[in-house]
Amino acid sequence: MSLSKSAVTRLSEIVGNSNVLFRPEDLVPYSFDGTAVLRQLPGAVVFPATTAEVAEVVRFARSTGTPVVTRGSGTGLSGGSVPSEDCIVLCLVRMDTILQVDPRNLTLRAQAGAVTLKIDEAAAEHGLFYPPDPGSMKISTIGGNVAENSGGLRGLKYGVTRDYVMGLEVVLADGRVVRLGNACVKDVAGYSMKDLFIGSEGTLGVVTEVLLKLLPRPAARRTMLAIYEHMEDAAETVSAIIAARIIPCTLEFLDQMTIRCVEAFAKIGLPTDCAALLLMETDGHPAAVFDEATQMESIAKAHGAREVKVAASTDEAMKLATARRSAFSALARMRPTTILEDVTVPRSELARMVAYIAETAARHHLQVGTFGHMGDGNLHPTFLTDERDSEEMRRVHLALDEIVAKTLELGGTITGEHGVGLAKKPWLRQQLGEASHDLMKQVRQALDPKGLLNPGKLFD
Predict the structure, then answer these.
(1) Residue 414: its pLDDT value, please?
(2) End-to-end CA distance of the chain
(3) Calpha distance 107→225 (Å, rounded)
(4) Do 234 and 181 share a structural domain?
(5) Domain boundary among 91, 118, 143
(6) CA-CA distance, 18 to 14, in Å (whole number)?
(7) Tally of CA atoms within 13 A in the half-sphere of 265 that contains its CB
(8) Domain boundary among 91, 114, 148
(9) Distance of CA 84 to the CA centre of its chain
(10) Do 197 and 274 share a domain, yes or no?
(11) Parent domain of 48
């Protein structure tokens, strides 16, 4: 159901007639995110261009009791930006300006709708580097990255979005605008309020502007591909590399199903007869890069790699990285429905977790391709299924429950980078325990007492 005519009129007065969608056929593209299986038509979609317009929309929504769901490019994989019924979707893609790059202070300031890749490209013009690189970085927005605390392939060495946010501009649930944090490297004045909003999935406020920390761009990089006959050998290699006190910038894993799908999709010459691949990359000072690459090659061979290929050029290295980034797209071509999961375990438990996922898939007669950021323990078991087949979906849910239970048993977390949203909500209390879960709800209640910001996400 769309919003009332008077509500659409008021929203049009705030952002302009051309920046409000309310006809059902126009709302369909905004009824789902990257999860695809979770869908709900909103009441309307608005496209503000300024923080003042965002604040005015939020104040209007509060006065009418209308829920607000903030959205960027809709690439999220936990249902975090799936609308609630009759809500206003606040889509920030028009707010895409990179406002300032400050090479003297190694910072960048951007509106929430700025695309992640564009941010790194703007930094690169000054010889600088924005490390977080979610798989959707070509289209994902920095506001969405902050809301979900996104990770990426370089997370092992460089961390996740939270590690680079120095300041935020946020519109609160009552329409007030606050600025949190600053460009100071050290600041211990009071609570770290900005951190409260990072990873809050739009339930505490609307992030409209971000101040980011940048790093000097690495002087050298070396990329390698290790090929394995057994998945467990690849997992053991990762644990051995970390135990050797080596922290590569990338340590990525693809199982056989994923390899075959990626090669059919990208055609870059990946070996399709192996059980697993490790994409290993080190960057930094040239001497350190050479030393780390040599050590990783030796460790991989000592743990069963049948071959370790070293990328001979930048182009070849980029092709290998692109192959990993295309894993989700490649798998999604195989069946009508693709469910990309996101669990993380301590790195010492990787071999056990990889084996358990494969055993669980076989036991429930399911197709599951597994890939992920193995260097930080983050795995993406990806279910290839058909949501129209109720019996198969029943087995998918049983397998997911078992995989999550095993993850928690091994000291892991239900999500390493995708967030909780709708998809992981049933398991959040199981991980946190009653007291911690209630504390999160109390924070939500304090900042959004009417529960209008992204309702139904994280908790009921």
Answers:
(1) 97
(2) 22
(3) 34
(4) no
(5) 91
(6) 11
(7) 20
(8) 91
(9) 21
(10) no
(11) 5-91
Q: So what's the pLDDT on residue 1?
A: 55
Q: Is residue 228 part of a domain?
A: yes
Same domain membership, residue 387 and residue 325: yes
- Identify the CA nearest to 307 among candidates 267, 277, 343: 277
CA 324, 233, 414, 203 torsion-angle sign: negative
Q: Which residues of the chain have pLDDT under 70?
A: 1
Distance of CA 410 to CAs 363, 382, 397, 458, Å? 20, 20, 20, 23
Alpha helices in 65-211 (DSSP H): 116-124, 142-148, 155-158, 193-197
CA distance 205 to 196: 10
Q: Give the domain CATH number at 403.
A: 3.40.462.10
Q: Flag whether 144 is in a domain.
A: yes
Q: Is residue 19 part of a domain?
A: yes
- Cα dist from 249 to 57, 300, 411, 446, whole Å: 41, 16, 24, 39
CA–CA gap between residue 149 and residue 349 (Å, rounded):
24
User: Phi and psi for 197 in degrees, rounded to 5?
Assistant: -90, -20
d(CA 447, CA 458): 15
Rounded Cα distance between 347 and 374, Å, is: 8
> Looking up tokens 């070396």, which residue turns up?
222
